[in-house]
Design brief:
Elements (H helix, E strand, L loop, with lengths): L2 H25 L4 H5 L12 E8 L3 E7 L8 E9 H21 L4 E7 L4 E6 L1
Parallel strand pairs: 1-3
Antiparallel strand pairs: 1-2, 2-4, 4-5
Length: 126
């Protein structure tokens, strides 16, 4: 990994740490009625893990948020910018682990795609 990619990964990691922390602070301000309307895909309460796959050419990020009780809360992993041909092998390993975890424990798995034009698309909300 280059120095530039390492710095970008650190910034993205810090952004997610700040986001989850801010979400939890603001969530406490919601009334019980307001909390009812928050979708599960938005839930960043403990336990919450986030893994970001950063792809290049074209540049986009695949964000996987899980709520596994047997993993550390606020575990945030930023995977290097991958070329498209490297990504398939890498994501296959992670999705296998996620699906294995889903069979042993009812959890939420949400997958998001952030493209370079900053749009968010929810692909999966189990």
């Amino acid at each position: 990994m280059t120095q530039q990619a390492d710095t970008a990964n650190k910034r993205l990691h810090d952004w997610f740490v700040n986001f989850v922390t801010y979400f939890r602070t603001e969530y406490e301000r919601f009334s019980g009625e307001e909390k009812k309307f928050m979708g599960k895909w938005m839930d960043c309460l403990p336990p919450c893990q986030i893994e970001v796959f950063w792809l290049k050419e074209p540049e986009f990020q695949l964000i996987i948020k899980t709520k596994f009780a047997d993993r550390q809360d606020m575990e945030i992993m930023i995977d290097d910018p991958y070329d498209s041909h490297e990504f398939i092998d890498k994501v296959d390993v992670v999705t296998t682990v996620c699906l294995d975890s889903l069979t042993r424990d009812p959890v939420l798995l949400a997958i998001y795609l952030f493209s370079s034009i900053s749009e968010c698309h929810t692909f999966c909300d189990v």
